[in-house]
Amino acid sequence: MTDEISTGKMKNLSEQKGTDRRRFLKYGAGVVVVAAAAAAGYYALQPAPGPPTPTTTAATTAATTTAPPPVTTAAPITLNFMTAAHHDFYYDQESYKPLAIYMQNNPNVKLNPIVYSFFDVQSKMASAFTAGIYAWDVAYVWGALLEQFDQYFTPLTDLGWSTSQIASDIIPWVQNAIYWKGQFYGYPRENEVFLLHGNKDIMDEKGVAGMPKTYEELLELCKRVHDPDKGVYAFGAGLQPGYLFPVYLCFLHGNGGYLWKNDSQQTVVPDSRESVRAVEDIVDIYKHYMNPGAIQWIADVQTSTDFLQGKHVFDLWFPSHNKVALQPESAMKSVYCDIWPGRKGVADSGSMVAAEGYAIPKKAKYPQDALAFLKYVGNADNQVECYITGSWTPNGQAPLPSFFSDHNDPRLINWPFAYTVKAHVKQQMYNCSRYERPAYTEITAAIEAEVSNAIAGTKTPRQAMSDARTATDKIVATEFERFGGGYFEPWKTVQQDSVQSQFKAILKNFENVPNYYTGK
Predict the structure, then answer these.
(1) pLDDT (tens digit per residue) in 201-238
(2) Main-chain dihedrals φ then ψ at residue 258, nearest 5 degrees
(3) Can you list the alpha helix ranges (DSSP code H) found in 7-52?
(4) Start-end ranges of CATH 3.40.190.10 in the chain?
(5) For residue 363, what are the contacts with CB-CB under 8 A and spacing of at least 6?
(6) Of all helices (H) and strands (E), which one includes residue 186?
(7) Quick one: which H or E segment has residue 183?
(8) Considering the domain 2-190+354-418, what is its CATH architecture?
(9) What's the pTM?
(10) Given phi > 0 = left and psi -120 to 50 = alpha, else beta, which region is 430?
(11) Integer Cα distance of 505 and 74 in angstroms
């Protein structure tokens, strides 16, 4: 199994096939005895737990330009830090190396990054947890993983730490990654939202001034810039299964739709009128304005590469690939970034948010030292630095800071690329739920399969989404038997006046920032 473990190295996203997610296990660790036995073959080689770790001095979460105070331990220790490959801004950057900085300021702590493909994390967790063995002191999580495996993670209050600061300051969309059934289990690290990007160079050439305010306007602009005879398509998005569900949610929300019913099971309704219309829109824009090969595109690999090379004008993805402005080999030097537009009279905006974080497994050897490291991860200085450095490197996908207060940092406000922060914050004022729940991977696989059928033309959108409803009804019923519903959905919190006021206050910091970057 050691050949499947990449320590300190990131798998190229082109290796992360969308079909890999079909290997995900069904909502938990109870059915993976064979996988657990295989995992034990590796983890049995781990050193035996050392003596209990004394209470540590935790790093503060206050914004500061200085490193956190050293953690005092009785003897040198190694913290196994499991993370996803797309978090390479922690361990593989030249300009900012937060792991190296932490070890420098905490000489008794060695951080051992264990890096998995995003699509492998769930099976690795199921194996280790079912085997009941030590694997990591800090582990990457997001909503669906935490909800499946909550019994294997330690609530932060059990470690003697109040989570009141997280509860009062955290952006609601991000809370979903580390909060479950009344408990905080970790610190957030990921806050990214799908945004619409535009090739400003081509748009200027075609006389298109600015980004569309409605979906209808987007289609009109697509007509003006679409030029396939010259190898330039109007629109691009990753449509391969494994990446298709977020695109579907953007179109769903842009049509005023909502994926869950407000009943005890939180029934999934992919056959709603808004959902069928969303799939019709995806099929339409694919047929008329996209490269035919996009049905097999992996997002942030083929999609972003074509966008950077000027092969399509509008692009739907996270803002990380706005690094084009700093890439000399890119054909594009100027880029727009704005919210995903909704249909006129139906929704002002749509989109989809991703939130991820880190938590402490109950089998961790050094939970107090792990907690100190989590606080460092959530430190305002660290989160801001990761965003303004990691997002702009060739392999970077660093997220926006996870707390409201972090957005008052002058490094963000005065940053040359602050237009991405402005668009990112503005987008989160609208519905961009990812609908995370224990059966998320099963539900998304069922919906993606049928959206793919509609794109390929083997079914009509209505037929496809009717079949998706049949499949998800069975999944939801099984999920409800085991987990009992009550899954957190941040959109209700985001709609509160107090939360909207905090977003508006942040936007005042960026009111003079245009929604584009012009390369020099």
Answers:
(1) 999 999 999 999 999 999 999 999 999 999 999 999 99
(2) -145, 130
(3) 33-43
(4) 2-190+354-418, 195-351+438-484
(5) 128, 132, 133, 134, 135, 152
(6) strand 186-193
(7) strand 183-184
(8) 3-Layer(aba) Sandwich (3.40)
(9) 0.85
(10) beta
(11) 45
